[in-house]
UniProtKB/TrEMBL annotation:
Organism: Molossus molossus (Pallas' mastiff bat)
Regions of compositional bias (Basic and acidic residues) in chain numbering: 323-332, 340-349
Chief location: cytoplasm
Protein name: Deuterosome assembly protein 1
Residue ranges of every copy of the CEP63/Deup1 N-terminal domain listed in the record: 12-281
Sequence segments annotated as region (Disordered): 308-349
Short name of one Pfam family: CEP63
GO cellular component terms, A-Z: centriole; cytoplasm; deuterosome
Transmembrane segments: none
Coiled-coil ranges per UniProt: 228-276
Keywords assigned: Coiled coil, Cytoplasm
Taxonomy, superkingdom: Eukaryota
Annotated InterPro entries: CEP63/Deup1_N
């Protein structure tokens, strides 16, 4: 009995210690479990945030791709418009050159014809001769002005052609930059997909480990921090790439605006050239009208000269026939006046 009492007395403190130790172990396990659950929730929220940031970056990349497509369409439309404008301008210039050559040929023919007529006429008509050289000098002056304007227009044509060549070069540079931008966007897309897969694999591999190894809390915390650092670096890289894409997009937009301003300036220059061409056509019409008027005046002068010559010839041919009847009339008058005197003398006898 004494030995049993002694055993019960010795066992009761051990059981109390064991029970106290078990309670402490339960408290530690519950604390670790709570800490682990809190870390798991924080990790899940971070992963959700990273997924959201990756989705936002993906949408930004899609928008940039659409903007690149719109820029490419605008560049193609501008290139087509420039080609059409240059072809139209060259066609108008060729027709204008042909008209100018025809006008110069007709003017040279008219001047040669006028010089020949002046040689044949001599000095009989001084006033028309004084008027026609004045008209010819005016026409020569207008023709010289027209030639000077045509030389200026040729210079402007050369300048416009060089400007078009420079614009074509700028267009090629812009298209190359667009291609580079698309390649960079594709590479960023592949990087995003790879990083997303890596993050998903890391998260899927880390979560079961945390579930299977609740006791190794320090290692899981380090791994979680490593994953978080990885995700932070990936997000920072995505942010940098997004900033680069935004900078490239801003540069492209600025270059496109500059190109649009250059196209507007070129359109204004072409409108000025069109107005000059219109004025040139009006000048050609005026010169043609003056040439026709001069030709009519020359025909009138020739007709007047022919009429005066015919009149002189008729006067010279009719003058002897008019003088002879007058002489006969005078003789008859003298005979009739002498006849009464003769009768008086006969009566006296």
């Amino acid at each position: 009995m004494e030995s049993q009492a002694h055993n019960t007395v010795g066992a009761s403190p051990c059981e109390a210690e064991l029970q106290e130790l078990m309670e402490q172990i339960d408290i530690m396990v519950s604390n670790k479990k709570l800490d682990w659950e809190r870390k798991m929730r924080a990790l899940e929220t971070r992963l959700d945030l990273r997924d959201q940031e990756l989705a936002n970056a993906q949408t930004c990349l899609d928008q940039k791709g659409q903007e690149v497509g719109l820029l490419r369409q605008k560049l193609d439309s501008l290139e087509k418009c420039n080609l059409a404008m240059t072809q139209n301008y060259e066609g108008q210039l060729q027709t204008l050159k042909a008209q100018f050559s025809k006008l110069t040929n007709s003017f040279e023919k008219l001047r040669l014809h006028q010089t020949k007529q002046n040689k044949f006429r001599g000095k009989e008509l001084p006033h028309p001769k004084e008027e026609t050289p004045f008209e010819l000098s005016n026409l020569n002056q207008k023709l010289e002005e027209f030639r000077a304007k045509s030389r200026e227009w040729d210079k402007q044509e050369i300048l416009y052609q060089t400007h078009l060549v420079s614009l074509d070069a700028q267009q090629k540079i812009l298209s190359e930059k667009c291609n580079q931008f698309q390649k960079q966007a594709q590479s960023y897309q592949t990087q995003l997909n790879g990083k997303k897969q890596c993050s998903e694999e890391d998260s899927s591999s880390e979560i079961p480990r945390l579930i299977c190894e609740p006791d190794s809390s320090c290692e899981t915390c380090e791994r979680d921090e490593f994953i978080i650092e990885k995700l932070k670096s990936a997000v920072s890289e995505i942010a940098l790439s997004r900033n680069k894409l935004q900078d490239e997009n801003q540069k492209l937009l600025q270059e496109l605006k500059m190109y649009q301003r250059q196209c507007q300036a070129m359109e204004a220059g072409l409108s000025e050239v069109k107005s000059e061409l219109q004025s040139r056509d009006n000048l050609l019409r005026m010169i043609e009208m003056e040439r026709l008027q001069l030709h009519r005046e020359l025909l009138k002068i020739g007709e007047c000269q022919n009429a005066q010559e015919n009149k002189k010839r008729l006067e010279s041919s009719y003058s002897p026939s008019i003088k002879e009847p007058e002489r006969k009339r005078k003789e008859l008058f003298s005979v009739t006046s002498d006849q009464p005197n003769h009768e008086k003398e006969l009566n006296k006898r």
